[in-house]
Amino acid sequence: RDYYASRGLGDVYKRQVISGVKKVLVAKDDEIAISVSSCVVRVLGKGLEIVQIGGGDAYIKGETAGVSFEK
Question: Element (H or E) spanning 10, and its range?
């Protein structure tokens, strides 16, 4: 994996909109991976759920433990 950024962010990303979602690659309770325009956004945590809100936008509900951006 090629990580651009990875850190424990707790609730910082809770309900932050992710724009330009192309495809949901992984959708599990403890991991979500989403393909966006130029990378993959991977979120780890507990009780995760992706909510697609239309127009290629989505947000992730649940307790996030970390976010990474992969090429």
Answer: none
Nearest residue to 19 via CA among 3, 5, 39: 39
Q: Compute the residue count for the chain.
A: 71
Concatenating the DSSP letter of every residue in 36-69 gives -SSSEEEEEEEEEEEEEEETTEEEEEEEEEEEEE
pTM reported for the whole predicted model? 0.73
Q: Distance between CA atoms of 40 and 3, rounded to whole angstroms?
A: 10
Tell me, rounded to whole angstroms, the distance of Cα 46 from its chain centroid: 13
Task: Give the whole-angstrom CA distance, residue 15 versus residue 43.
Answer: 13
Residue 36, pLDDT score:
92
Please count the other Cβ atoms lying within 10 Å of the Cβ belonging to residue 36: 16
* Tokens linked to 24: 């949901």
